[in-house]
Amino acid sequence: MVLWIVVGGAIDRNKREEIKMKKIFGLILLLAVGLFTGCTKDTEAAKGLAEKKQYTIGITQFGEHASLDNCREGLIGGLEEEGFVEGENLTIIYENAQFDTGTSNQIAQNFVSKKVDMIAAIATPVAQSAFNAAKDTDIPVIFTAITDPRAAMLTEGNVTGTSDKLPVEAQLKLIRAMLPKAKKIGILYTTSEVNSLSTLEEYKSLAEHYNFEIIDMGISAAADIPLAMDRILPQVDAMTNLIDNTVVGSLPVVVSKANEKNIPVFGSEIEQVKLNCVASEGIEYVELGKQTGRMAAQILRGEKTADEIPYEVVEGSSLYINSNVMDNLGLSLPLEYMDRAIDVVEN
Amino acid sequence: MDILIGILEQGLIYSIMALGIYITYKVLNFPDLTVDGSFPLGAAITASLMTNTDSALISSITLGHNPYIICIYALISGGIAGLITGIIHVKFKVRDLISGIITMTGLYSINLRIAGSANVPIFNMDTIFSNNFVYNLFPKALLKYNVLIIGFAITFGIKLILDIYLRTKSGYLLRAVGTNSVLVTTLAKDSGNVKILGIVIANSLVALGGSIMMQQQGFFEITMGTGAMVLGLASVIIGTNLFKKINFVKATTAVIFGSMIYKASMSVAMDISFTKASDMRLVTSILFLIILIAGQVKNKKVKIFVRVKEYLQDI
Amino acid sequence: MLELKNIYKTFNEGTVNESKLFSDFNLKVEKNDFVSIVGNNGSGKTSLINIICGSLDIDKGQIIVKGEDITKKKDFLRYQNIGRVYQDPSMGTCTEMTVLENMALADNKGKSYNLGRGTRKNRISYYKESLSKLNLGLENKLNIKVGELSGGQRQGMALLMATMTPIEFLILDEHTAALDPKTADIVMELTCKVVREKNITTIMVTHNIKYALEYGNRIIMLNQGRIALDRTNEEKEDLTVDKVFSIY
User: What are the structural domains, with CATH classification, of chain C?
Assistant: First the structure.
């Protein structure tokens, strides 16, 4: 780049253009200065993590999304429980890729150049960018909210984390328990979300054990949802959600259309039940985040390295219900579930 | 310093796509939205050809999954996408923007099919940046700059080829059809075919850019094309505006600069400490505005400077 | 040389706006004719040109150039033998390219636009010479973008570009109408010079009766798609501007 500027400057003999060239050079210099101020956030090269007193973690999140935000909250909370407190011995740099792969790459490179002690990545694309950027360095990458880390090729190397693989079987059991006569379950998903695709496959393979047939409908953007709902509702007895970013982002539309036709919508996470899904045997993203935070702490303390820790899946599931919605739909919860159930309405 | 290298790497690779957009947007005067689909198409073809290790056919046509050969297939696929848009626009007389949108929309589904999944990682596979040839060729010290060096070589090479092409007879015709397609007809040439050629060339470059980007980042994501047109346009416009007065050949260099400035702005936006992570896009757009205005103010300042100098000389 | 036989053309046939322009229209242009076509708006001057060049289709009839029936030929193919200068000086040139590049572009007409060098070095002196004959100072502006030239300079270039390669006939489509009177005169003089030097059959559509009478050997007046006046050589010299106007 400097070479081009010099060459460019030499070729342009016209004085006006010379001045212009200098101004452009000045502008580029200004931008470079702006970059260097960022550099002052550099931490020292990671000698041995266990020896350090101050830690810096770069958190990269794929997009603005309630579940992902919950992960982040849990992650920070989990670290805190393990003694890594933001402001005291921990600095957190948080960047959001705004659902853009290019930005995801830049954030990862940014963190690596700042030589952070760890990169925490929330969702598949940012985790992959981080892994790619950090692979020739010592920086460990810890991920969360990736449904299938194996498919994402994030099982080998200085990387580990938690998977938000949904408790599909538990959900199917719940739906069967609450709707003894239901035959068809509808699932709306976004074709571009790889997490949705793998969960959908699991639903399809387990559904017949519970005498269900899965009717699925793929969309490519939020704008497709109303039409897709109109088409799928007449065919199904109930709907269940994946942790599909696009569908969950438009959940009010989904739920209101389903409720008009008295079709219950089962969620996959507490936030969805709060938004009027009838119930959910789901995972709790804050918990998932905390679990991730605990893993991160282990690595920061130098107890284990990332490649020594295999990725973890959340065991068990949390049962959330929305009693208002249940009443409206005339449904009730079988006895054996009552103890575990947490009613979001009471909060 | 690592930040600068990262920006240069990203800027160089994206500028391949920006050069393609330069051809359609600036030379042909044809706003081409196909790029949102052809950028990931190149990446999808690359992902498919790299990961399908069971297929004997693919092994043979890629000469054993040779990443450089795979790049050529990506290039060709982009050309086909451009051909479709060109035919829709010229033969079926559909408006420029809509023709691009039609192809781009169709490509979303096609890309998914080609790649096989919405996300396809290629972390351990040979790419144009990391393979045995590169490891043997580069001395140890330079190995960590492999992306930068190879990226620079490829981008600079493409720029040179493009510059030379735009000075051939065919290139002249391409430049003419964008400004004045009537002239092309008067020169006894089918202006529609010339346009199609331009769109084909442009999208070939864009798809190649997508392939190389995907090889650098290590995975294919179906959404990687979203906003490609915007990014490319911004690079082209920022670059060409800042370097307006300098003669034609350098426009391609200006576009490469523009791409790097774009990436640099995003990096600066990321690091500004008093803004939240979600403010990044706002900061980036403000930075663009400042750069574009600075590009215009420069001319005024030069005039004032010259006039002041003359005045002082008269005294 | 050029023959229009039994041309029928109706616009908006079958609708409220239907207008029959040409009904069994016939015209013969001989080799080396310099025909001026005049007529008021709507008389069919521009349509006639577009029919000859292929940008306007006809309902019935034939267009024959040197014995060859080109009625079905696509417009860009017809231009292999036709040169055209438009009213808008920007339409006959490429404003984003330099004078030299425009010359090279026009020089290649009829040959393949392949990957060969755009501007051949050994032709540059020829271009310079041709441009200097225009007396517009263009030979010293080889690397200036055509868009920065004046209208008259651009039109001069367009004329040169249209006649650089061998053509059967030249069409001048009100090519001085957008220029100021002085520049228009200069361009008209140039036109006459170029046409005479290269011996090109020329059809000039113009509003300027003075030019129509002063230049060329034949004048045709169109009125609502019919030939109202057709004078050649000596008969033409008898005409004056007033006489022509009275027929208008």
Answer: 2-247 (3.40.50.300)
Domains and CATH numbers, chain A: 51-164+287-313 (3.40.50.2300), 168-282+317-343 (3.40.50.2300)
> What does B161-208 look like in DSSP terms, one character per residue?
HHHHHTTBHHHHHHHHHHH-HHHHHHTT--HHHHHHHHHHHHHHHHHH
B25 Cα to chain A: minimum distance (Å): 22
In sequence order, which residues have a C-beta less than 8 Å from that of residue C188 and are 6 or more positions away? C176, C211, C214, C215
The pTM of the full predicted model, rounded to 2 decimals, is: 0.85
Question: Which residue type occupies A193?
Answer: E
Q: Are the beta carbons of B267 and A106 separated by less than 8 Å? A: yes
Nearest to C114 among B170, B183, B187 (CB): B170
Q: Decide if C106 contacts C152 (C-beta within 8 A).
A: no
Query: Do the domain assignments include residue B170?
Result: yes
Of B169, B175, B190, the CB nearest to C116: B169
Q: Which residue of B has its CA nearest to C73?
A: B188
What gap in Å lies between CA A255 and CA A266, rounded to an integer?
Answer: 10
**ipTM of the prediction:** 0.89
Residue A38 at interface with chain B, using a CB cutoff of 8 Å: yes
Contacts of B242 in chain A (CB under 8 A): 24, 27
- If chain A, 347 residues long, is cut into consecutive pieces of 10 residues, what is the mean pLDDT of each piece? 43 46 56 50 45 86 86 94 91 91 92 94 95 92 92 92 90 91 93 86 91 92 92 93 84 90 90 88 88 93 89 84 89 86 79
Write out the residue range of the structural domain in which residue B43 sits: 2-225
Q: CB–CB of C134/C110 below 8 Å?
A: no
